[in-house]
Amino acid sequence: MQWRGGAGDVARGRCRAWHAARVSEAITLIVGDEELLVERAIGEVAASVRARDPDAEVIDLAPGGLEPGRISELTSPSLFGGGKVLVIRSAQDLGKDLTAEVLKYARDPADDVVLVAVHHGGAKGKALVDGLTKLKARKIACPKVTKMGERVDFVRAEIRRSGGKISPDAARGLLDAVGNDLRELAAACSQLVADTGGKVDDAAVARYYRGRAEVSGFTVADKAIDGHLAEALEQLRWALATGVAPVLIVSALAQGVRGLAKVGGAPRGARGAALAKDLGMPPWKIERVQKQLRGWSGDGVARALTAVAEADAQVKGGAADPAYALEKTVADIVAARG
Q1: pLDDT for residue 165
Q2: Looking at residue 158, which CATH number applies to its domain?
Q3: Beta strand 138-141 with 27-31: parallel, antiparallel or unpaired?
Q4: pLDDT digits (tens, 9 = 90+) for 5-18
């Protein structure tokens, strides 16, 4: 019988594992072009290095200012000691020679240097991404946040990052109010947690971002459809007090109730992209309406539609007091749900 392997194989395996761990510590590959996430990733790497070496120098590099041999020069041992963090921006533009130089260095990185390569993603410069990945460099993905669900997740994560909590509905309300820019959203999340003590709900979003009519209107509609009369009336008064036109609130109520009718009338078993296409609604909104429907009957939805139609006529000149007409409509919607 011939034995396979042995002490030499074990030693080589341990050596490979040690080398992979060393590369993972010394080389970070950031892939993506979501600016806020990229900057945070770089900042976290630099903070980690400076936690061990407060005097470590952070050096930003761009392909346009790099010449062959520069990477080797910067990663050579210094007479004065001290660590370095080398950040190569737009690494997809390095070109063949500089890419080869970076990969050569990554095979045997220096002990006191951490290299961060920032690649925007895509096919350009893919040899660098493939090479560093094969060498087991630490990889951080920072893709563009484009889908509604991803933005909601981002907002909720930002609130948690600041020490607070927020519901998915309140997160969507904040997105409607602030927009999709991650920097603005991050700032808003931090401010909301600071102002509210950490519990961020629909009322807090409306209070601090009440300048957007659609937020207040849809918040009123959601509270009424969910059967929360007191909260719906509170949000209604907030909206009116801050100058939201009654017709916009009625429009939000109408959209909410029509959503119940559309989703409730869809064929049983229909789901996913096909249902979203048929109803002209995004999947996340269909899921939300499906949850709201649990407290509704077909007759209740019909009564709510009637109440909204009457409110539309009243706020467009049929009622002496539009505010009272809206309060009555909200109460009628909540009653129809019951």
Answers
A1: 93
A2: 1.10.8.60
A3: parallel
A4: 555 554 454 555 54
